[in-house]
Every structure is written in structure tokens, then in C-alpha cells.
Structures
1.
Amino acid sequence: MAIINWRFQWRGISPNIKKYIIWKLAQIRLTIQSLTYNEHMSQSYVIDCLLEPIFWIVDNFAGNLGQVFVFCVSVLTAAVVFIAYWIGLPFWWQRDPYTTIFLVLMGNWLLLNIIFHYYKGVTTSPGYPPHGTMISEAASICKKCISPKPPRTHHCSVCDRCILAMDHHCPWLNNCVGYYNARHFFLYMVYMVAGVSFVIIFGFEIGFQVLWLYDPSANIPHNDPDLIGHPVRINQTGALIPIKDIVEYDSVNFPREHNLPVPITSELQLISSDPWKRKAVIFMAVTCLSVFFALGTLVIWHGKNISRGETSIESHINAKLRKTPRNVYRNPYNFGRRKNWKLFLGLIQGRTFIRHILLPSGHKPSGTGLTWHTIHNVMEDWP
């Protein structure tokens, strides 16, 4: 009789299973790569393929949606102005007429700048490279237009054209933000943030009363119940004696006049008691706070880009270039914060901040957007 002794190696089975799984996964990966091989395959190419449906929606519907967005901005702005005059003006006039005059002048100054810069941002062409002419400083060839691109020029898929110094395509303007209308776009956002801040500050008391301290039973005028009882009189001992005979006529047989003090109804009570005005105050609060946070964030973002002398597109490109191993990249259009702002706002050639920034001004930026001064070839007297 033969006895066979055998021993199962538990310690070696786990590494073998792991190696087998890794080998099978490598086979699957190699098979997929063999069937889908493309010499242009990269991470950016894969992302572009996955985002292709989004690009198709933007290319086909963004142009039509832009007109709807412009209409919505116009209606919302008109509604806020109407409610400010309907509710805010009587409230401040009852409080102090002189302060009201100052607020009306300041509010209309902000409104004038908002309307002007929004209109210019919508109607002003951002700037396009000329066709059929020689471009002396072409940076590259546009793959979609098949034409030379000047420096800082990018192709807009919505407009289907190359845009000079393109920042982005803004659906709220139904227009690209580029070389000739970037100042109007930025100043529109600045004045809009200032305008909603103005409404929030000087309408805070109204909103606090209506939205926080509102009491429907106390603020509705003429809602006191009819008094039931009998008139009384107090004698010298302090006792209450009912009046049985009420004299309705005076000594000359004229009806008596009872001049009783009537409490003054404040404008806040009228606003709180009116359901339509309450809804208007809620609408103003939601709209102004939303615009303040949304556009306020964009103002800070674009302000940082202007300080660095770059557009939104260039900020993404330059951020990648700054991460190079040697970190030697320097933006050739960054002349320093002060000069970058002067160039962006067009405060050159004798223009002043009061006349051309605080007041509506349609001045254009200097140059053509086809050639650019850089930190390497800047002239001494420029700008």
C-alpha cells in the first residue's frame, strides 16, 4: 500500500492570480489600442471627441439663444428700474426730498452708463482680420478659416470667424468680446455691479421691513375693529361715570367737530400691506443679489486678467506655459499693472478718466489689432 503526501501552497496562489489578471488586462488594452490606433491620439483629442455634442449644440443654437438672452437682460433691467421708481422713490421722498434728488441723479448716472456700454457691447464689432490683404505679423494659419491669423487672434465657433484679441463669446451680448468692444463689456459689468449695489444699499431698509419684519395684521391700514362700548367721564374722585346724554351740538346750534388725532401711515406700511409691492420687493432682492454675486465674480476675474495684460483665452494658455520645467515664460504683452489698465481703458492721447470712463464714451482702442507692441519692442513714448 502506497501513501502519497502532498501540500497545497496557499502563499503562492495570490501573486499568481494577480499576475494573471494584470496579464489579461494588458492583453485587452493592447487589443483596444490595436483596433483604435490613431497617430494623432492624445488626451486633448479624446476630450474634444467627448465634447463634440456640446460643441454641436453651441454652434447651432447659441446664435439664436443670444437674441433671447439680450431680450431677457433688457426686460430685467427695465423691471428693476421701474420697481425702483415705483417703490423706492416715494419711500425716500417721504423721508428726505433733498436726499431723494441726489439718489435720483446718481441712479440715473449709473443707468445711463449701463445702457450705453451694454448697447455698445452688443452692436460694436469685436474686430475681424481683413481678407485678401497682407498681414505682416501673422502668428499662424487658422485651420477653419484657412487664412492667416494675427497675434492674439482666435477662431470663434459660434460666429464662425476669427476674432481680434478674442476674450470669449458672450451669449448675454449675442456677440464676441474682442478688440473693439472688450472695454464696453467690462465697463458694463462694473456699472451693473455698482448699480445693483446702489439698489441694495438704499433699498435695504425696505427689504428688511417687508421680508423680515412683515406683520400682515399690523401693517394693513384701516383694519381696526369697530369699538363697542359707552362713553365715560372721570370725576374728581377718579371714578368712571357713564355719559348718558351726548351733546351733538354746540351753544350756537352747530354740529360739534371732533378733531381726533389720526395716526400717519408710513410708506413702509403701505408697501408691506400691498401684495403686489411685496412681490416686487422679493423680485428685486433675488435679482439684485444674483446679479451682484455673478457679475461681481466676473469683474474680479477679468480685472485680474487685465492687470496681467491678457485675455481669458490667453490666461488659460499662459497658465500652462508658466508650468514649464524652467518656468522662464513671460507674457510679452504685460507692461505692468498701471500701463495695462491705461491701454485697456484707452486712457492715452490726452484722454481722461472723468471724461472717458465716468461718462459714456465711444472712443476706440489705439491701433488696429493686427500688430501689437510687446515688452521687447515697445517705443519710449508709447502710449
2.
Amino acid sequence: MAAADSAPAPSSSSPECPAAPSMPTDPDFLSCVLQPPTPSSSSRPDADYAALRRLLLRRKPPSALQHRMEWRCNGKGYVAYRNFLLRRLDGGSAHSTPSNSGRWAHSPGPALSEADSWSSIRDLRTNSGLSRTVSISSKQSDTERHVRFAEPAYSFVGMHCIFDSCKTSVTILKFGRASSDLLAYGAADGSLTVCQVSEPPSVLQKLIGHSKNITDFDFSSNNQYIASCSLDKTVRVWEISKGTCIRVVYGVSSQLCICFHPVNNNLLLVGNANKEINATNFSTGRGISKLNFDDAVTALDVGHTGQLIFAGDAQGYIYTVSVNSHTGSLSRTHKNKSSKSKSPITTIQYRTFSLVARCPVLISCAQDGNLSFFSIATDAKGYLTLICSLKLASRVQTIRASFCPLLSLEKGEFIVTGSEDANVYFYDLARPKNSCVNKLQGHGSPVIGVAWNHGENLLASSDSDGTVIVWKRAKTN
């Protein structure tokens, strides 16, 4: 659009031509100036190009720079940023106000309901061999629904696909890094299944090697490898394309959580029941360094710069750890209590930016149902400040939670979590009262894991019966 700001004007020194303004502002005039020459294959000008230019010039918002400053990238790409701007520009009920900040309801398009979704769900059940009764609904009661406003980014149209080949509890599932198609899930029988969810959904590999429960796994940055850990005291590295285990690292205790370093992908970080985080060389399988804690390390995540690790233990404490991206050396900087109880942390998740906190943030989920939302002071070596918390029912299962980044672009801080009543719940942590804003019903047993794909058009959830459901979000444009 730089050409629009400096359109050529007749020279003021010419005696035949009067002076013209140097900065013309009429959009129609500018669009004609910017219109390309007539194509050689046609005698008509490109009308679509001119119309598009007129539209862009007329709708160019004066505060676009401010909107982009508010966005702060949020760790996401163009799709999320586009949706953010569309909600800003469309006006009406999509805007956040104190009375309708991020509330949920049915969008003008199709919404998930029993009547609308039964035919497609019946087909999915038939194709996947799922024989038990499934009830699907994301409706609230009439008394709840009339106070909830439209949030088109999180309206669901039903199930995209179902994977039910696993016969034991699916304890953990994740989409590939920056991937909307690659999904993997680990089970209590030690198996790790890699799937594609695009049409047609299919199982790509079933990775067999662990002898006990898969506690965690992570994709490498290029999605060529998976590193998994288990209660069988081993860490295994898998080459996805071949479906083979290329390395086994033996430990002395149960390996409970694992992640690749985001900057140095040759660095694996593993928390275990021996009260340690080990930094391991991915290529050789050799330990580089380790750091001791007060109890078993049950969950961890790494900041996007790779300089800070956040780890939760079996007593409900959250630690901030500094890591050297080159050498892998670890040092503890802060120790924080997530709640008053001494309950194991089941989820630690870092996020680059939050509109509520205006800085990096962290959520933690504990076995006793405590959800905590922290701001991160990066200039103070990752010091955590509790912003708000939410108390849910205590859990027997190790149930996990996840941020909802797109929805959180509106006023509020939304997360999704499984539950032991077989539902998937969405909560606004910034709204202590009436914090539950939606739920998805479809599982027949406790929902343990939840995960978004990269574009956040698909949400995957897993349960203790071994069923994985991929939910499809409604299109909004």
C-alpha cells in the first residue's frame, strides 16, 4: 500500500499544468491509479483488482497498528492473527464488552446439537466400529443460553473422526508441532499410535516397545521423531516414518514427563519419579546434566526462547529452572506453590502472551482439581505471580488441561479440560463465578487428555476406555 501514499502528481513547475495536491486521499482515484494495465489477453481491465483495492483502501482501519501491537504474535501464525483481526473489524456482538466478554453460544452457522449431528455421528460410529451409545451436545440449558453471546471461533459442528482401536486408557495425546493433521496418543498398555486426521483419517504407525503406561511424549521440531517416556523406567526415541525405535535410555525410576528443547532440538528434558530433571543428548542418549528437586517431577514445559523450564512436582510445587541452550546445564531459580493442598501437578503449559496478563503466562492443573493461572516475569528469571485460580472436583485419574489461545484473544482467559463425568469442559479462568462456558458430550468414560491442532480447527480428546474423539470446529468465514 506504500504506492497509495505517494501517488504521482503533475509537476508544479510545468506552465501548462496547475499544481496538484501531493497526497491525494480519494480512494476511488487511488484505486484507479493503482489499477494494473489492461491484460494482453483481454480488452477489459481487471475489475476484481480495482474493486479489491477500493475495498482495502476504504476499510483500512486507522488503529491497525495498535491492534497488531496488542496481538504480540501470541506464538501463533497467520491463521490465528487473521481471525483476531476479523473479529475486530466485523463489529457487532463479536466485540468484547464488559457484558459479553467471550461468552459462548450458537453461531449464526451450524452448531453442534443432537438433532443436527446424529446422522454424521452414526456414520462415524459405523466406520470406526464404535458400538456403545454416544450422546452429543454442546447446548446449554435455556436459562444459561439466553445470557451467552456468540463466539464463532469456538462453535463445534460435531465429530470429525473417532479412533477406538486402543483397548486401554489413552493417557496422553498431542498434535504434531505446527501441524493440523498429525496426531499421536499414548496408552496404558505402553503403545504409542500415530495418526493422520485429514480425509480419510487413518492410523500411520503403532509404536510398540514400552511395557507399561506411557506417561508423556513429545514431537521433534520437524515431526520426524517422537520421544516418549513410561512407567517402565525408559525413554524411547522413535523414527515416525519407519515406525522403529532408534534409541532407548534406561533410568532407575519411572519417567514421568518429557519435552524437546525448542531451540536446541538435540536436547531432551525428562522429569522422573527420582526427583530429577535430566538433560539428555538426543543423538547419543547420554545424560548431559541433571537437577534435583524435593519430590517426583510430574509435569513440565519450556518457554519459547528455551531459557526457562517450568516443572511441577508431586507435592503441588511449581519450579522455574534456567537452562543453557548450548551446554544443557540446569539451575533452579524459583519455587512456587500452586495451591494450599499437596496434590500432584498433572499439567504445566506455557503460553507466549496473554491479553489478560499482557505478558507470558502459565497454567497448572493439579490432581485435586485446582487450576491456577500465573503471569511470568521474564526479567526476574521466570518468577510466577498467581492471577486467578479455579477449584474443580477432585480427580482420581490424571486429567490434563490446555489453553484455548484463539478464544482468549477476547476478554478472558479460556482453558479446556477433561473430567471424570465423561465431558469436555471449557472454563474462563478470569470469571470465578459462572466460569464454565461450554461443554462437549460424547465420551462414555472419564476424559483424560485434550489437545488442539495448530490451526485450532480440531480438538482431540481421549478417555479411559481407549477412545479418541477429534471434534470439528465450525467454519467462521
